[in-house]
Amino acid sequence: MNNEDFEKQLSPVPFKQIPAGWRRDILEAAEAARRPAASPREDSAHRAGLFWWKAWLWPRPLAWGSLAFVWLLILGANLGTRGSDSGTLQGQTVAHAPHTTTLSEQRALLSQLLDSSRPLAGPMEATPSRRRSDRRLEDLAA
């Protein structure tokens, strides 16, 4: 008997409805098989809301993992450079004085070259360490 003969024999037979109890049992068994079996510890922790962060991070796990990796790199770089003083201003304040005298000398030479009766500017004076906004207010008041 081939498939066509079998189909011809079944074609006159009417379809019967599955009993409601059987349908419910079949669907419950399929749902139970679809869900992974959770351990009692995980199930109680999930009910307690301890895995809320998994639901929050799950839509884009690669993005969150990459962000965590970048933060770890930044933390490592920060801890690795904490002991060195190469980038501080302590060594740079000394180098300011020679440039100031050079600029004053250049202005004096320019004034001599132009044969001007007055110098272009006086020697560079060190500005007192005040806030810029305070100096601006004094300039406006003067």
Helical fraction: 55-70%
Radius of gyration from CA coordinates: 42 Å
Which range does the strand content fall in? under 5%
Shape field:
rod-shaped
- Kindly name the structural category: mainly alpha
Q: Major sheet, described briefly? A: none
Identify low-pLDDT runs.
none
| Number of alpha- plus pi-helical segments | 7
- Roughly what is the average pLDDT, rounded to an integer? 75
Cα distance spanning the termini: 114 Å
Query: How many E-type strands?
Result: 0
Strand/helix succession: HHHHHHH
How do you describe this structure in short?
With 142 residues, this protein is mostly helical.
Structural summary, described in words:
The chain is an all-alpha fold and 142 residues long. Helix content is 61%, strand content 0%. It has 7 helices and no strands. The protein has helices spanning 3-10, 20-34, 40-48, 52-57, 61-80, 96-113, 132-141.
